[in-house]
Amino acid sequence: MTIKLFTAANKMEEAVHKIFEKMTPKPNCIISDMCLHYTHKIATKFQVPRISFHGFCCFSLLCGHNLKSSNILETITSDSEYFRVPGLTEKVEFTKAQLPLIRDESWKAIMEPLTEADKASYGGIINTFEELESAYVREYKKIRKSWCIGPVSLSHKNELDTDKRGNKTSINKQECLKWLDSQEPNSVIYACLGSISTIKFPELKELGLGLEASDKPFIWVLRGKNATSNQVEKWIKEDGFEERTKGRGLIIVGWAPQVLILSHSAIGGFLTHCGWNSTIEGISAGVPLITLPLLGDQFCNQKLVVQILKIGVNLGIEKPTMFGDEESGFILKKEVKNAIYQLIDEGNEGIERRKRAKEFGEKAKKLLKLGALLT
To answer: Do you know which Pfam families this protein is assigned to (predicted)?
Structure first.
């Protein structure tokens, strides 16, 4: 499905070319998602710069650049051996399995033209802000022209913008906000693992049991109707989970108004897959994170959140899940419960973590106010 989407998106070249030809006056620049490599050809033909939009953070982009330019991966033979990323001040370590390396031939055919077009672009815009990862922004700007435009999620001018960003859901916004209003401040754990989660039923069951065992109120978002979510919904009803957590747990099937939820005062933590959009939305809301990376750049984002920014708790996932991977047992109820306890801990470490998360949220909102004043 994902490969088909990439392929289909890049079949729009002829149509976009015709639109570009008819535009008066001609645009001075093309800003396009880095995945739309055909836009570089159009920019070249019309002699205008093309700027790529990156859906990653600067830390992730810099790690990727340093790994490639150093050729260190050629010396690593094991997928499970930890090694240090060269060229960083901090000791940041990954395994090869945790990196978004392209090994499948069908994916290579998709990624190679994308990568080449991105390299040839005039520069890139990134959904991050300098106050969040200043050292990595500075270093990455030495490599290529870059502009930080984030956090994009705060740019919505009204609540309607944040509410109408996805498909149908099992609950409306008013019900969700009413439920949140009934909870204590900073008490609710929001658990959402993104729109392309590869997690199977056994893991989701353990995640649910961990949320239940924590005795904390929670919102648990499940992907829209598919075989796995159907299994989970069936289990929730037949096992008695729904009845046992009534009033304390809110389950949303399908899309959730995430930005609205995260910005509510009742939210005390965000259990996330560490996709960059979700990660920066949590950071911008000033919420500490529980990290459950699955694939792609998500392990990199986890390192930034837990090790560098120190605003998150690691659930302990070391191995990625791939599309079609049937492996089970990498999430356990007790690990979820313990991570939640660690996040809400009232000791110095927990207090400092929440304080740092709040400070980053305030910095993000301050940037939004500054941008409004400048415009």
So the answer is: UDPGT (PF00201)
